[in-house]
Amino acid sequence: MDMKALLKIQYGLFVLTTNDGNRDNGCIINTVTQVANSPEKITIAVNKANFTRDMIFDAKKFTVSVISEGADFELFKHFGFQSGRTVDKFADFADTLRTANGTLAVTKGTNAYITGDVFNLVDVGTHTVFFANVTDAKILSDTPSATYNYYQEHIKPKPQDKPIGKTAEGKTIWRCSICGYEYVGETLPEDFVCPLCKHPASDFEKVV
Question: Which residues pair with 98 in a beta bridge?
Fold first, then answer.
């Protein structure tokens, strides 16, 4: 089975945020789907390794801010390459507005936001799928939404912009094809998970 076939599925990109009554937090996700209307309902899929998932599990509310083609790589680094367990992601991030359900919408590099209140969830293994009633939505700009492919082609730094080959000590470098994280070692463990984007060893490539 060629698992790379799954990469042919098109995805959007979103900043998912929540508030548990004590703090705000957010992460990057790529799976938001409208599943019903009258009233509108959406689903979001969140990796269980994400602290934001744990907070939504308790708070039962969230906002998804739709990332646009106007976003830069810093937005992805800020919300995707560090954990809310150790960093307050909103301590130095001012481009937000407080939505009616008490969570933050990100207004920089986005074109819309949608707020939701969770009414059900399903455990699907690595991820939790949350079902939510849409409680508010607003357009922020006319800039087109960024797809996952657009991120790969136009936002994520190209591999050639980074050192390639072996380290000064002659050790092999393995690079995550999703976010660019580099692992140094002759072999990459089969169960290795990227500490930045949480993708598995199958998404790493040996740098040559």
Answer: 104
